[in-house]
Amino acid sequence: MNVVGMGKAGCAIAEALSKYPQYKTYKIDTDIEGKRCFNFPTCEHPEDYEASSPKMKTFFRGVKGNVVFIISGAAKIAGASLVVLEHLKHCDITILYIQPNCNTLEDVKVKMHNVCLGVLQEYARSGVFERLILIDNDAVDNIIGQVPIIGYYEKLNELIVWVFHMLNVLKNSEPVMGKINKTKETSRITTIGTVDFESGEEKMFFSLDKMREKGYFYLLTKEDLTSDGNLLKKITEQVKNLETEDARSSFAIYSSEYDQNFVFCMTHTPYIQRG
Fold first, then answer.
1. Pairing status of strand 248-256 against strand 177-178
2. d(CA 194, CA 205)
3. For residue 134, what are the CA distances in angstroms to 14, 26, 122, 146, 148?
4. β-pair partners for 262
5. CATH code for the domain in which residue 72 is found
6. pLDDT tens by residue, 17-36
7. Backbone angles phi, psi at 118, to 5 degrees
8. Domain count of the chain?
């Protein structure tokens, strides 16, 4: 899978994903250098980034198939997102959108974020993108709990990247039981998260309104899968308790080499979300 990170947040997550061999990463930002890095000209205003976007055909040469494009709308360089994505229109694009903490942003950056989020959602709904995955840094912060100031974003990104990667692995693995329902063509706006296997508490990375579909990925130890006769009943009851009135749910169970159990979740909606 090709990963394209744009802006500081996008590049940081792309860099974190590069530790896994399944991803080939590209980074786009101002004042950046290195392998598969594109040094974008610095502009004063967000709209200037779109107008002054350089040619990138050579940079993206050979990129095809699945692409994950990572961006935060609070970055000025996000103004060039659609121009950059135009170079990847032959690919199957998933957008990983990072929503910043708007309480700490100046008004102009909040407006930038709202515009970028709205435009990308409309493109996803129309089918230009395969999927738009929404991540709210505030939600991730609340899940982690106490996070020190130094290394703050690294800690948030660590959890985001791990859950995103594990879901990719499981979606491309054969379950020992169950099946995740194929999402409807219109349900292209998504978020991800985890479930505490013992308590059943769901912890999502974005508060998605009007969810219509939910998929639970149970990654369980071989010991529990072979010895716990009550395991399937626990899982089915847990999924039932997590169901909402308007959303259909499905689950799949996978065998793990880990020494503890994990549950990952994806939820989907066809409806535009407010930042």
1. antiparallel
2. 9
3. 16, 20, 13, 22, 24
4. 219
5. 3.40.50.1440
6. 999 999 999 999 999 999 99
7. -65, -45
8. 2
* Residue 20 to residues 1, 164, 165, 166, 220, Cα–Cα distance (Å): 11, 12, 8, 11, 21
170 in any annotated domain: no
Residues 44-52, mean pLDDT to the nearest whole number: 85
Three-class SS state of 251: strand
Place of tokens 């549950």: 263
* Phi and psi torsions of 248, nearest 5°: -85, 145
Q: Residue 249 forms beta bridges with which residues?
A: 214
- Whole-prediction pTM: 0.95
* Residue 148 resides in a domain: no
Distance CA 196, CA 260 (A): 11
Name the amino acid, one letter, at 24.
Answer: K
Give which of 167, 160, 259 is closest to 216, Cα–Cα: 167
pLDDT computed for residue 274 by the predictor = 86
Contacts of 22 (CB under 8 A, 6+ apart): 1, 165, 168, 169
